[in-house]
Amino acid sequence: MEILIAKSSGFCFGVKRAINIADRCSKESKNGGIYTLGPIIHNPQVVKRLEESNIFAKSSIDHIESGTVIIRSHGVKYDVINEAKAKGLNVVDATCPFVKKAQELVSHLSEEGYSVIVAGEKDHPEVKGLVSYCPTGVLVADSPDALAEMPRKKKIGIIAQTTLPVERLEDIVSFCLGKAPEIKVYNTICNATSIRQKESADLARAVDVMIVVGGSNSANTRRLADICRSIKPATYQIEVASELDSSWFNGAERVGVTSGASTPDWVISEVVEAIEALCTK
Ligand code: SF4
After folding, report:
1. What is the pLDDT of residues 108-131, one digit of tens each?
2. Is 239 a catalytic residue?
3. Ligand 1 atom at shortest distance from the alpha carbon of 73
4. Residues 132-140: contacts with CB within 8 Å, 24+ apart?
5. Each residue of 2-36: pLDDT tens digit?
């Protein structure tokens, strides 16, 4: 049996950068604790490893009295950094530069008087952060249906959650064409996501079984699994190697392995080794 691994699996640029920043903080910090606002990435294995380096996730600034707070790769709401500084915390901003760019563009669209639409999932922390950069109010939509009640506007400005599938942005833009004479669109979808999605879809077409590795609470991993499953129904999403089931590989000649952007290489290697072990039993 052959195991094929998607080239783009493992951490994306922004996650790698955030983890490196956290590692550096752990080595350099002398005073107080080190905290992340929410888990630095959606991967429990990485969060556990950071805890072993004395970096702990806290859900809010209110729960941090002193020390260093690391802002995770998908950013925070506009006023959180100022609140943390006002509290005397040492703020280390590990927001991915691509997310930072999207935050700036939301402000820019708002200043220019556009009715701003963020194409994305309203409960995603990155989207909550983006929304906070628009003082004039934002509509969040993950599909045209969410905009059904929107009245006509003079001009609409659209940006996207960095991990949104491009087809969803296209659907929302098409819908908005009938809602305003002027539309400005910034395609803020990160290439890392679309490349990973395309490579995983291609791989799903070429194999009998697809394994998608990533935290069960990671939205980008779930989306990747959905894309693969729509092509290859025999797609399984797991977090760690111990969740593999030998029955999934019965009769399979080729197995594809891909991962979300927050899955470390060592977890992927463990999964590949476990598949090999299961299939040679
Ligand atoms: S997916 Fe893209 S935007 Fe999001 S953290 Fe990774 S590199 Fe940055």
Report:
1. 999 999 999 999 999 999 999 999
2. no
3. 5
4. 132/77, 132/78, 132/79, 133/78, 133/103, 133/104, 133/106, 133/107, 134/106, 134/107, 134/109, 134/110, 135/110, 136/110, 138/106, 139/115
5. 999 999 998 999 999 999 999 999 888 767 799 99
